């Protein structure tokens, strides 16, 4: 099969081994496909439990946390977090487009206080730990660990003390090792790093899941999903199933430590190509550079368009930057092979020679 170099920002590349496993196993469910089984069957129960224990094992989730598989994307978590966890106010660190979306939802529930913002710097960086301003009486501090559009990532996490830290990790979940115990809630749409669209992973500390400040619709309460083990209603069976195959692949690859090492190598190839060049300009501050979304510009829109068109003809897709920033964005998620990063770095050098 001819696989292209897939730099899509999301949904994005999945490991070929995981896709093959899904294809091979498609009909292996007692005369049925996985798409046709009941979510109350013992077959699905096995899938759900294995997926959960893979999350727990790979991320080294400590005792006292619940692992949930929900629907509605990270965008629904923007609302569920404040609805469930905010008493009167919460602190938000604003580092890009998705942080602002989270803030907009939180404002519908209560008072949002700005703990940090890099908006006046065109979202070119994330804060250092000591730049975060915590406020009195905030129910939690919300951060976006990787800014998919602006190509920035936290390289140190705020020390929020007794204020629970809530993190949107949609675009860097399981891309690097971290200490889950520093976080009260971690949520991520699966479709960038760990699976297909349709399922949202939520890790939540039990004491936070039990918070209750207001009556809420059943589906929007964390307790509903905690008490029913993500089976209150029909969960996204197929998306969870494919996620299991991706997590199995991460485990076979050596776990998150090995994935992180590979991610660092891939990102270094492309950042080196930027730093060596007189043509490309990275948009992120160096100490905030993302391992997952690498953003850079060329001197004119014309050259950018030429770059995108030529890269396509060399079998590279998904490199057009988000309209908010323009330029080029190479998403180098877990499943992107090193060969794709090498191909891009080579193409960048060749293109510059001709330009
Ligand atoms: C893609 C993305 C989202 C939106 O996720 P949905 O699952 O589409 O709601 C939120 N936050 C970040 C950081 C993202 O990259």
How would you characterize the overall build of this protein?
It is a single chain. Helices cover 36% and strands 16% of the residues. The radius of gyration is 21 Å and the shape is globular. It is an alpha/beta fold. It contains ten helices and 14 strands. Helix 3 (73-85) crosses helix 4 (97-107) and helix 8 (255-275) runs parallel beside helix 10. The structure holds pyridoxal-5'-phosphate (PLP).
Biggest sheet architecture: 7 strands, mixed
Number of strands: 14
How many domains? The number is 2
Instruction: Tell me the CATH architecture of the largest domain.
Output: 3-Layer(aba) Sandwich
SSE blueprint and pairings:
Blueprint lengths: L4 E2 L9 H10 L16 H17 L6 E6 L2 H13 L3 E6 L2 H11 L3 E7 L23 E4 L1 E2 L4 E2 L11 E4 L16 E5 L10 E6 H4 L12 H6 L9 H16 L2 H21 L5 E2 L10 E5 L3 H13 L2 E2 L10 E4 L6 H17 L1
Parallel strand pairs: 1-13, 3-4, 3-5, 5-8, 8-9
Antiparallel strand pairs: 2-10, 6-7, 9-10, 11-12, 12-14
Helix pairs in contact: 1-7, 2-7, 3-4, 8-10
The structure holds pyridoxal-5'-phosphate (PLP).
Pyridoxal-5'-phosphate binds next to helix 3.
Characteristics:
355 residues, Aspartate Aminotransferase, domain 2, Aspartate Aminotransferase, domain 1, 3-stranded antiparallel beta sheet, 16% strand, binds pyridoxal-5'-phosphate
Please sum up the structure shown.
This protein has 355 residues and is of the alpha/beta class.
């Amino acid at each position: 099969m001819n696989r292209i170099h897939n730099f899509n920002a999301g949904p994005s590349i999945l490991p070929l081994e995981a896709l093959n496993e899904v294809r091979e196993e498609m009909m292996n469910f007692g005369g049925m496909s996985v798409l046709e089984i009941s979510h109350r069957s013992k077959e699905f129960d096995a899938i759900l439990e294995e997926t959960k224990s893979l999350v727990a094992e790979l991320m080294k989730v400590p005792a006292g946390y619940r692992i949930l598989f929900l629907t509605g994307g990270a965008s629904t978590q923007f609302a569920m977090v404040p609805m469930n966890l905010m008493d009167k106010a919460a602190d938000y660190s604003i580092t890009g487009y998705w942080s602002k979306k989270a803030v907009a939802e939180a404002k519908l529930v209560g008072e949002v206080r700005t703990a940090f913002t890099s908006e006046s710097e065109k979202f070119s960086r994330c804060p250092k730990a000591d730049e975060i301003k915590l406020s009195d009486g905030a129910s939690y501090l919300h951060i976006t660990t990787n800014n998919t559009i602006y190509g920035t990532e936290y390289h140190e996490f705020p020390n929020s003390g007794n204020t629970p830290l809530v993190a949107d990790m949609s675009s860097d979940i399981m891309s690097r090792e971290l200490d889950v115990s520093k976080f009260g809630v971690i949520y991520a749409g699966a479709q960038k790093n760990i699976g297909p669209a349709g399922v949202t992973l939520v890790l939540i500390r039990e004491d936070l899941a039990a918070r209750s400040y207001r009556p809420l619709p059943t589906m929007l309460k964390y307790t509903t999903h905690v008490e029913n083990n993500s089976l209150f209603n029909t969960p996204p069976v197929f998306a969870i199933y494919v996620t299991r195959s991706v997590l199995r692949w991460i485990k076979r690859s050596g776990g998150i430590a090995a994935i992180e090492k590979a991610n660092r190598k891939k990102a270094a190839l492309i950042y080196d190509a930027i730093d060596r060049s007189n043509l490309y300009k990275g948009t992120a501050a160096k100490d905030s550079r993302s391992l997952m979304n690498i953003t850079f510009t060329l001197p004119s829109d014309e050259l950018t368009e030429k770059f995108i068109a030529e890269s396509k003809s060399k079998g590279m897709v998904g490199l057009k930057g988000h309209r908010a920033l323009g330029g080029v964005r190479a998403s180098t998620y877990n499943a992107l092979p090193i060969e794709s990063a090498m191909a891009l770095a080579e193409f960048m050098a060749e293109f510059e020679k001709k330009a």
